[in-house]
Request: fold
Amino acid sequence: MFKKIIVSLLLCAATGLLFAADAEEAQIDTSILDKAYVETYINDTAAVSWKNYSTGKQIRDMGRRLGAEIKYQEQVNHAKSPYAGGSPDFKYKAVRIYPGTKAGADVIYIEKHARVNTIQNMRRIVSGYIERAYDIPMEKSDEIAKKICYWNTNHYNDKAYFQANFQVRVREVFSNKTPIIGLARSYRNWPGKTRIVIPFVLIKQTVPDAVEPAPQQEAAAPEPAQEPEQQAAAPAVEPVKTETVPEVSETKAGLPALTIILLIVLIIAAIVLISFLVKRGMDKKKEDENDVK
Reply:
């Protein structure tokens, strides 16, 4: 029983070490978005019925639910292509497509019955998605969402651009819903005709090595005050020069955090194994004494 526990602990530690070493994190590719130029949008200026009114937070929460589901599918279910259905009422859908020979991206589809009709609300949905899917604060997410909308409008339905730079699934996902990719300038062409592309890159996660702090240096002693000129007339005796050998400070490279955890697990396993062997030896000794009696 103890041997099985020890083996399980060692396997868990080794697996965790290997997984952490190979783990990759999705980060929005701002190098592409920074090239976007400003667009002018046409918003719906009609009065909104109280039945259809939603606060800014409620609209942002729709995007947050999408982003949280994508993150859950990726990190918990380890889905090959994380998908979010977009509650409530399934007004929005999202898919993550990983990079291969070409760039990957998240794609948000705006359903036909979605009532987003101003660029401000469109940005809130995209910002909420970024906030949860990429763990980015709201203010920073708002800045990125603005660039994403501009960039998608810059390349509105530019299929040649997406074909040259992105994985084929980025162009094909939700194509059964609409053949258009990108964001139009007018709100009239948003519901059912919008696929917002969010480019991202995979960054390998690394654990920094622990480094011991450098030893503090002692403060230099203040120089003695100079004697008055009258007393300085006496011949000065030149002090004997003595060479001092500088102390060599030895620094030790810190061990990575994961290595320390693995060592702790191994030590615990060794203690359990030794305790088991000692107990087994004592039990055998008692059995031998009983046989002699």
